[in-house]
Design brief:
The protein folds into two domains: 94 residues; 84 residues. The chain is 53% helix and 14% strand. With 211 residues, the protein is α+β, with helices and mostly antiparallel strands. 13% of the residues are buried. It contains seven helices and four strands; from the N terminus they run αβααβββαααα. Its EC number is 6.1.1.9. This is valine--tRNA ligase. It comes from Strombidinopsis acuminata. Keywords: Aminoacyl-tRNA synthetase, ATP-binding, Ligase, Nucleotide-binding, Protein biosynthesis.
């Protein structure tokens, strides 16, 4: 009938030319800062092989006063996203940070935010960790060799600048990753050679993140 609402199929597109869609710059800025922070914490957990069910403690050192207050207000959400213990999450002023506490790993997210995460005590199978790193090194070496083979004089001459920049950046990144894994292996072997007892995950973490 005449009183029936228009069908969605024939309704005009919403006019957004006059800024009809609301945007919250403050919320967008907060989200942009949250993403790399959560990723950094998850990466550390993965490197330390901390299982998802294990709740960790976190200390945030924040330089931006507004972001510091926002983090304090969102501790439950941050804890949920990072699998942390909300009762052991602290947000502190950047100026108060000192040396990395013993038994903790400090992650630099950016120039305004650093995070300390204590590494839980747990026995580490050194031989298993060494095999994992050797497998990772073999894969990275293969990727690097394959990338280098593509960087021929003909490619550098004929390819567009974006393609050249992309493959050179990939080569540099792989070289850095390869060097880091090699250093981790060297540190692990040195640590293993100091005694017959199995070191804790905290001891291994201190050696790996010192490189």
């Amino acid at each position: 009938g005449a009183s029936d609402p228009d069908s969605l199929m024939i309704t005009s597109w919403r006019d957004v030319s006059a800024g009809a869609l609301f945007r919250d710059p403050e919320a967008e800025s907060y989200f942009e800062k949250m993403c790399p922070m959560v990723t950094a914490i998850r990466n550390v957990r993965a490197k330390q092989e901390i299982p998802p069910k294990e709740r960790v403690a976190l200390t945030f050192w924040c330089k931006d006063p507004a972001y510091l207050e926002a983090l304090k207000a969102e501790i439950p959400a941050v804890a949920w996203l990072t699998r942390a213990d909300p009762t052991k999450v602290e947000v502190k002023d950047f100026a108060g940070r000192g040396e990395t506490p013993e038994g903790s790993v400090r992650t630099i997210v950016n120039e305004e935010l650093e995070i300390d995460m204590p590494v839980p005590e747990k026995e580490v199978d050194i031989e298993q960790e060494q095999r994992r790193l050797e497998k990772q090194l073999k894969f990275i070496t293969g990727q690097l060799e394959s990338t280098i083979k593509k960087i021929t004089p003909q490619f550098m001459e004929r390819s567009n600048p974006i393609a050249r920049e992309k493959i050179l950046a990939k080569r540099d990144e792989l070289e850095q990753t390869k060097a880091a894994v090699e250093q981790q292996l060297q540190d692990l072997r040195s640590q293993h050679g100091e005694g017959d007892s199995q070191p804790s995950r905290r001891t291994v973490a201190a050696a790996l993140f010192a490189s």
